[in-house]
Task: structure prediction
Amino acid sequence: MEFTEEQLKRYSRHIILPEVGGKGQKKISEAKVLLVGAGGLGCPVGYYLAAAGVGTIAIVDNDKVELSNLQRQIAHSVKTLDMHKADSAKQTFEALNPDVNVIAVKERLHSKNILALFKDYDIIVDGTDNFPTRYLINDACVMLKKPLVSGAILRFEGQVTTILPGDGPCYRCLFEEPPPAGLVPSCQEAGVLGVLPGVIGALQATEVLKLIIGKGKPLKGNLLIYDALGVNFRKVKIPKNEDCPICGKNPSIKELTDLSEEYCSI
Amino acid sequence: MKVVINGDTSEVEEGLTVAGLLETLKIAPGRVAVEVNLQIVKKCDYENHALNDMDTVEIVNFVGGG
Result:
């Protein structure tokens, strides 16, 4: 692909970076990234990836925009209330950058559709709001050997990690089983500082771009924890669990299953 | 004895277990993962895993919002 004059201008600040250059920008424009969730995290991740010129961005979300989302979900607006979040985000991202092909997938992820949805994408981004889907995404990415950039937020704490199946630990290596029902509150129950997903989403988008251009060190084998109140970033090393039920030597999980919502819905 | 918890050094009683530490910190064991010296401690071992002087403990919250 040759860049048009307009594209050379749009991406000039990338192209002058030796680590990106024309070559890296071409990789970005050919990349296919799938975002799970167009909420607090999905909005900033998608916004920055669209601005960066990621060629194809799929957004999987079955929810509709509500007024209580607008305190942090910056791709939506009062004009898109009641619209599917995937459509609302698609409008916003395409308005920012018409180069980007945004695919709105208005479906809920489950064990039967996840592999088919993920298989055509290079990188998966987790920005979901519940544990059953987090485990499902992790397991599907391990099975498909897809890089996964995972982010999570609650109150004033955010977490980010990059999972490269076959090269380091997965989410289950750290958190083998979901928490018991009702023990970990949701953002709806416990609140979240509106800007927190902006910080975490920007870190996730950074990880995605690094993976695409193949520069720098991915955040694999580490969980980066951000404490907004204490202004503290802590990196916790995650060891690979050889007995991990999905990525260990003898995995006990051979096929995907849906955890019940009540089990650990947040 | 001293242990390093989430990067900060704390004085704790000799022979304190992971379960005891979580109880002292008023943390429900079900909502965290605990790593001691870069090894994840399985939940079923919390009661038996005694900490040693200068162990490095990381307590990681389950965070699942998006």
Remarks:
- The two ends of chain A are 44 Å apart (CA to CA).
